[in-house]
From TrEMBL, chain A:
<feature type="transmembrane region" description="Helical">
    <location>
        <begin position="610"/>
        <end position="629"/>
    </location>
</feature>
<keyword id="KW-1003">Cell membrane</keyword>
<dbReference type="InterPro" id="IPR000515">
    <property type="entry name" value="MetI-like"/>
</dbReference>
<feature type="transmembrane region" description="Helical">
    <location>
        <begin position="181"/>
        <end position="205"/>
    </location>
</feature>
<feature type="transmembrane region" description="Helical">
    <location>
        <begin position="285"/>
        <end position="308"/>
    </location>
</feature>
<feature type="transmembrane region" description="Helical">
    <location>
        <begin position="335"/>
        <end position="357"/>
    </location>
</feature>
<dbReference type="InterPro" id="IPR035906">
    <property type="entry name" value="MetI-like_sf"/>
</dbReference>
<feature type="transmembrane region" description="Helical">
    <location>
        <begin position="137"/>
        <end position="161"/>
    </location>
</feature>
<keyword id="KW-0472">Membrane</keyword>
TrEMBL record, chain B:
<feature type="domain" description="ABC-type glycine betaine transport system substrate-binding">
    <location>
        <begin position="29"/>
        <end position="303"/>
    </location>
</feature>
<dbReference type="Pfam" id="PF04069">
    <property type="entry name" value="OpuAC"/>
</dbReference>
<dbReference type="GO" id="GO:0043190">
    <property type="term" value="C:ATP-binding cassette (ABC) transporter complex"/>
</dbReference>
<protein>
    <submittedName>
        <fullName>L-proline glycine betaine binding protein ABC transporter protein ProX</fullName>
    </submittedName>
</protein>
<dbReference type="GO" id="GO:0022857">
    <property type="term" value="F:transmembrane transporter activity"/>
</dbReference>
<feature type="signal peptide">
    <location>
        <begin position="1"/>
        <end position="23"/>
    </location>
</feature>
<keyword id="KW-0732">Signal</keyword>
<dbReference type="InterPro" id="IPR007210">
    <property type="entry name" value="ABC_Gly_betaine_transp_sub-bd"/>
</dbReference>
Length: 641, 314
């Protein structure tokens, strides 16, 4: 930060402070956005959508697309759970699917993956969730290839044309920071509800990382490889499909992995607009307070995610095998033959006994009883603590803080943000901050937005207080770090809705419950990046400082933490993003922020309102993202790596 | 499954003949929406299985319970078996005005939604269910976030229940806190049950909560038409909302305008469908308390109640 930059930044902050001091005597136009400033964005968006839908007839186009989607969904639905559609073959018995998955796991990564993949399907079957899981998978199986193909296409286009990339980049940024509910409303308008709408929402949500990874992969292709392709006389098309994409294989497959993970993240949310299966069932069970059964479903979703994640990563890392000429067909396709044998065997089993086709709910195992009972015991044991915590936090922390956030004049908030922007990245960042936050003021949702900001701030703060010490503790030993990271993964993939109910039971319907549920998510990236940051500090530096006689505490404070800070800030950035998403979902506990309005917009299918709120949330996230990126860029430069 | 269809097919063959006499149903599936509460799911399955017995094909689609009216209007969903006056009356009426959806029939079941308390609350505040007695016990319901006033836990704000207006009009010592979903309401009741803590929440009938937690509605001054708009109606001459909610709201069946033409036989049955409060509570209980799957519960209900639904088909 240069001296001039600091002076301007302090000046802006001082001005903001002055506005806060003088709040009582300020004209009302500085306290809250004056009426002329509030623009009817929602009406404009609605008018634009009405134009697209009615006058341009976009509806016929989207409906045609959704018909294609539906045809694909019918095929997977028939194969997986026997919906009465072409090709009328299904349902495939669970035992066949389980051995097939096990075989794929074995081919990609040996016995461990085989056990994971096969075991996941056995778990699903014996827990009696087969039908639901297959309903879910039937949508994911269709959505994933579409996402991958679209992502690959857009990625290649963006790589070819700079102009297209410039156009695409901001769209991707916003798409990735917009809360899920905001997408769903236009989809309901254009596509309707049902599995096809769910598939389309899932695709929209999962495409961006694929585009990004494709672009990254293609960029990284070394010129020598391309050169050698050219020398062999490849055309441009051949160069792309035979040289560039295969070379970028690993990055592209990581993109596929991301697509799969995002699809699974949508399983529960998409059921608001018609995703059948696990998510739908989960919401139903929660509605009837069946926590044990919903946790079983949560475990299934986590297992599916872990399995697909490991499988696709193994696929990404596995290099293609090229056989020597003259190897016999049987030897080349040994695994295929074994698989066929196993399929024949299990099909025979399925023919002999219906248990191997589908385990009925009555025959299913369940651990819901003990889980519910231990939950009760836990809540009873925690009650004295939570009662006190609730009282303390509400009366002394949350309510005063919330009132303070709402009390701040909006002009002061904007000036403060501009000041922070200026301090981090000069005039440009100050303007970026304003460009992101001013529209929120102009949308007319200022108060609600401030409540969202307040909840995110509190949650991220609590998350840092928990996450950083936990991360430091974990980073001290590699085994511990691995266990903690695994725990983080599990918490992150576990469907967020399940947390909402126990949290309400513990704290009641209030801000403590909301903050508690958000903290669960916000802490995960902080722990993860703290561990990664500390482990990423070059060992030579640690060695050198311990040789110069620094104690462990000194190494931690003066060497490891400063060097790990840029990585940890990436964690903070993600933590803010997760909090924003979760605060929106926490509307189901009961909040008075943007999330509550978003929920209302979804139930009244108000596209304009939903998108305005979505943009408001996205802009908050993007602003934080910008600030942290700029800051850690500068930091990296001054650290010299 | 096979056996069930066979059973239904034979019992309903009469109906099929009668229907086939005047029109043929389309072979496209009838799309039935499924929401996140059990009585609706079981009822959907019951009606769906009756339709299947007529030879129609049926599909169930999970749908948001407010967005469903838009979907019916567009024909994406064929009908909605439970339109609650209190919760969905507004969405339904708005959709009817836009066109494409209409009112098919009204169930005998009446719906009621109002302030409600589980039985253990009455032990702490014996004057209940009278609202004035409740008001005197307000201190029992105090929570940290409501200061020295009692807390009333309302439903999500978008259910538009005017609880705050009621509190203001009747001058009650209560603060309305809105839960974000029905699940949050149940979670609070369940937590209160653990400690036998008094609690007053928004609730409605028929639903599964009655079977799990016995309770009563608070008796406010009785509803009179216009109480919400005309200050002179109701006990207080200068206040609106100085009354309880209607104690007998409708429960309707709504359908897509294209249904009578496309599936005349099924539509004719749908016009006859009619459930009572007891039947709906029973359906909810089969799933929420006995732990049956909604499909199985529907089959069981059909087997046990042939005398109820057979006349609809004939």
């Amino acid at each position: 930060m240069t001296a001039g930059q600091a002076r301007v930044a302090w000046g802006l902050v001082a001005l903001a402070a002055a506005l806060v001091m003088l709040r009582e005597s300020l004209p009302s136009g500085l306290v809250r956005p004056p009426e002329w400033m509030v623009l009817p964005f929602a009406d404009w968006i609605n008018a634009a959508f009405a134009f697209l839908r009615d006058d341009l007839g976009l509806m016929t186009l989207t409906r045609a697309f959704s018909d294609v989607m539906e045809a694909c969904l019918d095929v997977t639905a028939n194969l997986l759970y026997g919906k009465n559609r072409w090709p009328h073959l299904g349902p495939i018995p669970w035992s066949v699917i389980a051995v097939s998955a096990g075989m794929v796991g074995f081919a990609l990564g040996g016995w461990r993956l085989a056990a994971l993949a096969g075991g996941t399907f056995v778990w699903i079957a014996v827990m009696g969730q087969w039908q639901w899981a297959m309903e879910t998978l039937s949508v994911i199986l269709v959505a994933t290839p579409f996402s991958v193909a679209l992502g690959l296409g857009f990625g290649v286009l963006a790589w070819r044309s700079q102009a297209f990339e410039r156009l695409l980049n901001p769209i991707l940024n916003i798409a990735q920071s917009m809360p899920h509910f905001a997408y769903m409303i236009p989809v309901v308008v254009f596509i309707g509800v049902g599995p096809k709408a769910a598939a389309i929402v899932t695709i929209i949500f999962s495409v961006p990382p694929m585009i990004r990874m494709t672009l990254l992969g293609l960029r990284k292709v070394p010129p020598e490889v391309v050169e050698s392709g050219k020398m062999s006389g490849a055309t441009r098309w051949q160069l792309l499909t035979r040289v560039r994409i295969p070379t970028a294989r690993t990055d592209i497959l990581i993109g596929v992995n991301q697509v799969v993970m995002q699809c699974l993240a949508m399983v529960v949310l998409a059921s608001f607009i018609g995703m059948p299966g696990l998510g739908q069932k989960l919401l139903q069970l929660l509605q009837a307070l069946k926590i044990g059964l919903s946790i079983e479903i949560g475990i299934t979703i986590v297992l599916l995610a872990v399995m697909l994640d490991r499988l696709s990563k193994a696929w990404a890392m596995k290099q293609p095998v090229h056989h020597m000429p003259g190897v016999r067909w049987i030897e080349r396709h040994r695994l295929l033959l074994i698989w066929l044998g196993l399929v024949a065997l299990t099909s025979a089993l399925a023919w002999l006994h219906p248990y191997f086709i589908e385990v009925e709910r009555k025959q299913a195992l369940s651990m819901a009883g003990p889980v519910d009972a231990s939950m009760k015991v836990f809540i009873r044991a925690m009650t004295p603590v939570t009662e006190w915590l609730r009282w303390f936090l509400i009366t002394w922390v949350l309510i005063p803080l919330r009132d303070a956030f709402l009390w701040l004049p909006f002009a002061a908030v904007l000036l403060l943000l501009a000041g922070i922007g200026w301090a981090v990245g000069g005039r440009r960042s100050a303007l970026v901050c304003l460009a992101f936050f001013l529209p929120i003021a102009m949308s007319g949702w200022w108060d609600r937005a401030m409540i969202t900001v307040y909840m995110v701030c509190v949650s991220v703060l609590v998350a840092v207080l928990i996450g950083v010490p936990a991360g430091l503790w974990g980073a001290a030993r590699p085994v511990r770090a691995a266990r903690l990271l695994f725990l983080c993964d599990t918490f992150q993939t576990f469907p967020s809705f399940i947390y909402l109910i126990p949290v309400v039971m513990l704290f009641g319907v209030n801000d403590v419950a909301v903050v508690a549920s958000v903290v669960v998510f916000a802490t995960v990236p902080i722990i993860r990046y703290t561990i990664e940051g500390i482990l990423g500090v070059p060992p030579e530096i640690v060695e050198a400082s311990s040789m110069s006689g620094a104690t462990r505490g000194q190494i931690m404070r003066h060497v490891q933490l400063p060097l790990a800070l840029p990585t940890m800030m990436v964690g903070a950035n993600q933590s803010v993003m997760f909090s924003l998403f979760m605060v929106i979902i926490a509307a189901f506990i009961g909040t008075q922020d943007l999330g509550q309005e978003m929920q209302r917009a979804l139930s009244s299918t108000d596209v304009g309102k939903g998108l305005v709120l979505g943009f408001a949330v996205a802009f908050m996230g993007l602003m934080v993202d910008h600030l942290i990126l700029r800051w850690s860029d500068g930091r990296h430069r001054s650290l010299g790596f | 499954m096979q056996r069930k269809v066979l059973l239904l097919a034979t019992t309903a063959s009469l109906g099929l003949c009668a229907a086939a006499a005047w029109a043929e149903d389309s072979s496209d599936p009838i799309i039935i929406p499924i929401h996140n509460w059990s009585s609706q799911i079981v009822m959907s399955n019951v009606i769906g299985q009756i339709f299947e017995s007529l030879g129609d094909s049926v599909e169930y689609v999970p749908t948001d319970s407010q967005a469903v009216y838009e979907a019916i209007r567009l024909g994406d969903v064929t009908f909605e078996p439970e339109v609650w006056e209190g919760a969905y009356g507004a969405s339904f009426t708005a959709a009817v005005e836009k066109g494409g959806i209409h009112d098919v029939a009204t169930h005998d079941a009446v719906t009621r939604e109002d302030w409600w308390y589980p039985m253990w609350t009455k032990e702490a505040c014996p004057g209940l269910p009278d609202w004035q007695a409740l008001n005197e016990c307000a201190a029992l319901f105090v929570t940290p976030e409501t200061g020295d006033k009692g807390r009333f836990l309302g439903g999500p704000v978008d259910w538009l229940k005017h609880d705050q207006e009621k509190v203001d009009a009747l001058g009650m010592n209560f603060v309305v806190v809105n839960a974000g979903s029905a699940a949050a309401l149940w979670a609070e009741i369940s937590a209160a049950e653990e400690q036998q803590k008094p609690i007053v929440v928004f609730n409605w009938t028929p639903n599964f909560a009655e079977a799990v937690w016995p309770g009563e509605f608070v008796e406010f001054p009785a509803w009179e038409a216009g109480c919400d708009t005309d200050p002179s109606v109701g006990p207080l001459p200068d206040k609106t909302y100085d009354c309880g909610n209607p104690a007998n709201g409708y429960l309707k069946i709504a359908a897509w305008d294209g249904m009578p033409e496309k599936w005349p036989a099924a539509y004719a049955v749908l016009q006859q469908v009619n459930f009572t409060n007891a039947q709906i509570a029973e359906m909810a209980k089969m799933v929420d308390v006995d732990g049956m799957e909604p499909e199985d519960a529907a089959t069981a209900w059909l087997e046990a109640n042939e005398d109820v639904w057979r006349p609809w088909v004939e």
